[in-house]
Give the backbone structure.
Amino acid sequence: MGITLRGVNYTYQEGTPFEGRALFNIDLGILDGSYTAVIGHTGSGKSTMMQLLNGLNIPTKGDVQVNGVTISAKSKPKSIKQLRQQVGLVFQFPESQLFEETVLKDVAFGPKNFGKTTEEAESIAREKLALVGISDDLFEKNPFELSGGQMRRVAIAGILAMEPTVLVLDEPTAGLDPKGRRDLMALFSQLHASGMTIVLVTHLMDDVANYAEQVYVLEAGRLVLSGSPQEIFQKVDLLTEKQLGLPKITAFAQRLRERGVAMDRLPITIDEFKEVMRSWTN
């Protein structure tokens, strides 16, 4: 059924001297099973919008529909709890959510909270820990004894243990080294291939080009641009004006174009660039 935002507005601390408008009349759709990226500067409303998708934020006006569940200003906590099981939200530093005394207990906490027995919850936890690459010799360790990358994986396993149909990723590779980032992005790609809907907030345009099928661009709380990565990254002047950047290979190709290399479309991935170069040299 996917995700639909219709006329969504959000105001922080509404009705107080500190109120601030964060989102303005957002209308967008995310197809079931798709991989969607949301980009924009800090303060553009990306994280606010992501937290609407599982009910951490409630629209001030308009509504959010996720897999048949509607969230509006009139929504009750009971309906939102159901949604939070369907939509897993990975924060920028998810390891800060770890709190149990062992890795296994931490990942099993979510399923137990939603009614699974201890045995069932631990079985799910073992499965998800294996999926994210955590070996069973770490299951009884304190999560805070692990490396930063391992802690990140444990935290993500805890979210996957809720068995969501939608995974919302808010800068999930922040602070990781290049290998750790590649490994996590490969994991998310694998989850998407299995049928999971992925929504990625990122400032890394190479990840948008390599993985996303649809892109939404936010600016100052407003949706200003949408399309496929191939469409979005052709708008070089507009992206430059908004200081959003380009995939590295696209920026390189643009410099070649400026020096006389004819290209009908700028490539956005290495494979596309190789194809363009082959056709140019033949």
